[in-house]
Amino acid sequence: MTEAAKRRIGARPPKPESQKGGNTPPSVPFATAPKAFAKRLTLDLTEADHRALKILAAEHGASMVDLLRGALRLVVDQPAIAEAAIRTKPMADPR
Q1: Could you tell me if 47 and 91 are in contact, meaning their C-beta atoms sit under 8 angstroms apart?
Q2: Is the pLDDT assigned to residue 77 strictly greater than 70?
Q3: What is the predicted pLDDT for the residue at 39?
Q4: How far, in Å, CA of 42 to CA of 33, rounded?
């Protein structure tokens, strides 16, 4: 058996062309977002915060974005909640 044949045994076959870009579907471009949402926000979360948010959303049958939009509305409408939120630390500081 040749060296090339030995290397091919047990090797994973190459991906088809249709999968070379990965399995993640392309994200929706911002230009197609509903007009009511004219601004986009990127948020860095710790793994613990992301997991807690995802679990909370699932428990309430909501999406993470709807949960965050509702929380933002509470912060904007109620100054005491905004003050408490500002003082709150992430669940786990990655530094």
Answers
A1: no
A2: yes
A3: 84
A4: 15
- CA dist 1 and 73 (Å) reads 69
Distances from the Cα of 6 to the Cαs of 2, 12, 13, 20, 63, in angstroms? 6, 13, 14, 25, 49
Q: Which residue has the tokens 């909640």?
A: 81
pLDDT tens by residue, 6-64: 666 666 666 666 555 555 555 556 556 667 777 888 889 889 889 999 999 999 999 99
Residue 66's nearest CA partner among 93, 85, 58, 77 is: 58
- Helix spans in the chain (H): 3-8, 47-59, 64-77, 79-87
Output the pTM of the full model.
Answer: 0.54
DSSP state, residue 91: S
Separation between Cα atoms, residue 44 and residue 12, nearest integer Å: 35
Q: Which amino acid is at 19?
A: Q
